[in-house]
């Protein structure tokens, strides 16, 4: 029997599991306008951020690729880009990139509209209502899982995550890949100490060398800055949860990616160039990481968490899996899958993986996650900070 989900066909051949209208700020100055427009539209999300002005180099590129990638994500039916008019990341630039996905896109700048922000909000609402009405005409259709891009995330991990929720997700990731789909593992600073295991799974020597050189450049860069990365990872929360070393944390991190061959490395928010398992160079900050995954095209994200995390994403639904019994009880309204049954009910990792697979299928067909129900739409964009400076000597 073919594994299928019910999704929305897009003009460029991609498939959405949600059917949203995105209102995107090109610059921080118009965030209020963007939110006011989205609040008045059915099934719309506001993509706001503190950037867009005076950026250059890698910062400029990350912001442009991330914002346009979020608009291109198949979960988005159509996009309205709102600019101010004097910024260097312009509404026109973002709209032009998003239009390549062949979806409806409109853009305007507040400074070009007589009446200022009030008139701009009215214009955005009028445009958005037409998009929302057109989006409602689309019906879900059956698709196989070769159309799915799955993001693999973890946050607030503890000593239980790596032997419960994470390997359960690894089985699901392998199944997505086996069915012709795509998985993306971010958080490259949490591969440290396990790079030899990842290198063994690279599809060729070039990919193996990229894995090695990426981590080596980072570690050498931190030494030049006088930073001992062991003092950064594990985090204070990880330590409270029982993790003791970066190697222990990394073993849990890579468990989320199962055993599939690694097809290549992606820069932050870069879309995969084919199906299979990919690695994303991203420093492991939860909100930035999930933003990058959604911008890379992930329609769904599964996040494992040991101590509990409520965060979500405005574009891709986030499924939470937890292996800690106390956290599952304490934050029951935030956890979708209770993996602690491995310990409390003698369930096998494979049993939890099957439950998680069923949840993923239902989520892809429209069932909402707790993060969606509660309205968690968190977003942050990676900047060319200390981590990247150590690698590229910016």
- Main sheet: which strands, in order across? 10-11-9-8-12-13-14
Q: Kindly name the structural category.
A: alpha/beta
Please count the beta strands (DSSP E, at least 2 residues each). Answer: 14
What is the total number of structural domains?
A: 2
Residue share in β-strands: 15-25%
Distance between the termini: 52 Å
The run of helices and strands is EEEHEHEHEHEEHEHHHHEEHEEHEHHHH
Please work out how many helical segments DSSP would assign.
15
Give the fraction of residues assigned to helices: 25-40%
Determine the mean pLDDT: 92
Using the CA coordinates, give the radius of gyration: 21 Å
Profile the largest sheet.
7 strands, parallel
- Cα shape: globular
Low-pLDDT segments: none
Secondary structure layout plus pairing:
Layout: E1 4-9, E2 15-16, E3 20-25, H1 31-39, E4 44-47, H2 57-72, E5 76-83, H3 91-98, E6 105-109, H4 116-136, E7 141-144, E8 149-154, H5 165-178, E9 182-185, H6 195-199, H7 205-224, H8 236-240, H9 246-255, E10 262-266, E11 276-280, H10 286-295, E12 300-304, E13 318-322, H11 325-330, E14 337-338, H12 341-344, H13 349-364, H14 370-374, H15 386-392
Parallel strand pairs: 3-4, 3-5, 5-6, 8-9, 8-12, 9-11, 10-11, 12-13, 13-14
Antiparallel strand pairs: 1-2, 1-7
């Amino acid at each position: 029997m073919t594994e299928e989900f019910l999704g929305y066909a897009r003009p460029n051949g991609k498939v959405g599991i949600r059917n949203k209208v995105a209102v995107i700020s090109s610059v921080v100055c118009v965030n209020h306008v963007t939110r006011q427009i989205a609040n008045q539209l059915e099934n719309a999300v506001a993509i706001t951020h503190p950037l867009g002005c005076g950026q250059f180099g890698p910062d400029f590129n990350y912001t442009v690729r991330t914002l346009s990638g979020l608009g291109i994500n198949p979960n988005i039916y159509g996009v309205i880009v709102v600019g101010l008019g004097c910024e260097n990341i312009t509404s026109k630039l973002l709209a032009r990139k998003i239009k390549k996905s062949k979806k409806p896109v409109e853009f305007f700048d507040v400074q070009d509209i007589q009446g200022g922000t009030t008139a701009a909000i009215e214009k955005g609402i009028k445009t958005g209502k037409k998009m929302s009405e057109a989006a409602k005409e689309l019906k879900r259709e059956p698709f196989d899982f070769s159309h799915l891009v799955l993001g693999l995330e973890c946050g607030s991990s503890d000593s239980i995550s790596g032997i419960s929720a994470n390997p359960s997700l690894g089985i699901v990731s392998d199944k997505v890949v086996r069915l012709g789909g795509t998985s993306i593992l971010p958080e490259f600073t949490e591969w440290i100490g396990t790079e030899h295991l990842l290198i063994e799974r690279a599809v060729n020597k070039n990919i193996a060398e990229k894995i090695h050189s990426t981590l080596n450049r980072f570690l050498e860069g931190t030494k030049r800055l006088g930073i001992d990365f062991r003092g950064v990872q594990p985090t204070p929360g990880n330590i409270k949860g029982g993790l003791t070393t970066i190697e222990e944390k990394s073993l849990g991190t890579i468990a989320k990616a199962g055993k599939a061959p690694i097809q290549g490395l992606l820069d932050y928010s870069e879309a995969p160039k084919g199906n299979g398992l990919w690695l994303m160079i991203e420093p492991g900050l939860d909100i930035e990481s999930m933003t990058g995954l959604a911008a890379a095209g992930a329609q769904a994200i599964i996040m494992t968490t040991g101590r509990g995390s409520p965060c979500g994403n405005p574009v891709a639904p986030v499924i939470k899996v937890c292996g800690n019994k106390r956290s599952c009880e304490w934050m029951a309204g935030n956890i979708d899958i209770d993996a602690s049954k491995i310990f409390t009910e003698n369930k096998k990792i494979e049993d939890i993986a099957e439950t998680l697979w069923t949840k993923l299928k239902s989520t892809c067909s429209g069932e909402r996650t707790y993060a969606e129900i509660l309205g968690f739409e968190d977003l942050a964009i990676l900047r060319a900070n200390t981590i990247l400076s150590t690698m590229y000597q910016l």
